[in-house]
Amino acid sequence: MPTARTAALAALGTVGVIFGSILGVYPSAVFAVLLVLLALLVLLDRSLAADPRRLTLARSGATTVRLGESTQVTLSVRNPTQRPGELLIRDAWVPSAGASDEPYQLRLPAGATALLPTALTPTRRGDRPAARVTVRSRGPFGLAFRQADHDVPWTLRVLPRFASRKHLPEKLSRLRTVEGATAIRGRGQGSEFDVLREYVPGDDVRSIDWRATARRGDVMLRTWRPERSRRVVCVLDTGRTSAVRVGDEPRLDAAMEAALLLAAVAREAGDQVDLIAADHRVRAVVTATQSRSLLPRLVDAVAPLQPAMVETDFELITSEVLRRERKRSLVVVFTALEPGALGEGLLPVLPKLAARHRVLIAAVHDHALTELAATPLDAPGDVYAAAAGTRALADRERIASALSRNGVTVLDFPADVFASRVTDAYLDLKASGKL
How many CB atoms lie within 10 A of CB 338? Predict the structure, then answer.
């Protein structure tokens, strides 16, 4: 392809043709000679340019970054040809990767390698792939260049912010208080063996250990402590309702924040944490995790999740939970309090789930509905806005009451305190011995 310098020379040739016509020289002959000379120069310049198709490109650098932070991915370019390359390179990424659009301009000698760093500041969670790398190789005269596209695959996984981790010190402090009180109050009431002690009047005779009694000659009693290792199942609804934006983020992101904080506290409590993300099909599963790798595994599993524009199949979710969780567990379903979604989907199958597990329904409250219901009636259109907000809030209360009648605890809080309140509900259950 010709460059701007070629166009400038052609313009100068046009001026020469004009002067030639003034001097009596045939314009067509002058123009033809100049055009042939310029074409020969362009072809020569192109032939002397390094072939961009023969360049070897590869990537290295970060594969993960947390949303809101910056990282760097390096593009290496090697010139295996025998000619130096005057190169213009554009490393393109998807827009949400936050890469600069400025191209790299460099001279790459024959056999040399250049490292081109690209700073990335993603604006969205999920997998951000690299696009094509476009290379232009200019000739030594600057009259023409050769261009080629290279596919250099690379994917940067953008993890959730997990801003709710700021609540961890407070929640862990409360957890220690709860565990201390439970250990004092709960001895003799749990299912894990604690110690043998002598029987005192008033003890439950069903706890007498007759073998120990025979060995020691005194009536010995088995004492028990509350079971420490329980199961907590976080269910993320990734259906259409999770795409609704509450504040600056989709409802799904707020649910992820709450699930991660709950999982971090439950892990410290010695409980096992499972996660299921689903809509009309299962999107992600993390099971039987109690180790220090819990949070990295959960974060990596939820990072690529995106809302699906389909209705959530709560029958699928219920069957998946019942199939995986044989033991009684705490099941926290992160969804929306919408009659269309829960009334027709969850309520019919909820009794089957609540009969086997303790169920919490956690929903992010949209403050915009409260503001809409409180719209001042200053104009005719305000009446409809206020009525719509009032109707939406009434529907939420109706569906929450229906869920509560099925033995389910409903958590409905604004996004800024949602993660903290969900974890508080978990700690309240532990403190009351209901978990």
Answer: 18
